Amino acid sequence: MGQFETRLAELGVSLPEAPAPAANYVPYVQVGDTLYVSGQISKGDDGLITGKLGDDMDTPAGAEAARVCAIALLAQVKAACGGDLDRLQRVVKLTGFVNSTADFVEQPQVINGASDFLGEALGDTGKHSRSAVSAASLPFGVAVEIDGVFQIK
User: Fold this and answer.
1) Most exposed among 4, 78, 79, 107, judged by the fewest C-beta atoms under 10 Å?
2) d(CA 49, CA 65)
């Protein structure tokens, strides 16, 4: 087990199998040492994490949904790296979409669920740029969707 998966285990996280695409796209594309991972929706062990921030879901629950998306992103990175997560050199950028009402303004705090987790799990490798934006709706009614750009060896 590599350093990143050891740290994940210390945090009580075991990466799932990389989720299969839900439509006509690929889960990731590698160009040189840059890996582009398609949007990962909030889907946990018990199924889809649905809800609309500012309506039937609060910010802490949204942050947990974002954390789940970050775990799925790492699962895709591991798959792209042939099972060796230690090939990850840097989380470059995340774009987080939050299913929220027009007056909800805590999108950054929701996406912090992913950013905080990646920092805790990966240290400096997990530090990244990002966007956190509102969406009127997301696929299947999920609360959060996040895509990412990663640098790998």
Assistant:
1) 79
2) 6
Once rounded to an integer, what is the mean pLDDT over residues 12-27? 91
Distances (CA, A) of 97 to 22, 44, 45, 106, 143: 17, 17, 21, 12, 8
Q: What is the pTM of this model?
A: 0.97
Tens of pLDDT, residue by residue over 96-152, are: 999 999 999 999 999 999 999 999 999 999 999 999 999 999 999 999 999 999 999
Smallest CA-to-CA distance from 133 within 95, 86, 94 is with 95
- Nearest-5° angle of CA 45, CA 18, CA 118? 80
Confidence of residue 1 (pLDDT cuts 50, 70, 90): confident
DSSP state, 111?
Answer: H
Residue ranges of domains in the chain: 3-13+27-152
- Return the H-helix or E-strand segment holding 149: strand 144-152
> Are 8 and 15 contacting, i.e. CB atoms less than 8 angstroms apart?
yes
Give the per-residue pLDDT at 101.
98
Residue in 62, 96, 88 with CA at minimum distance from that of residue 151: 88
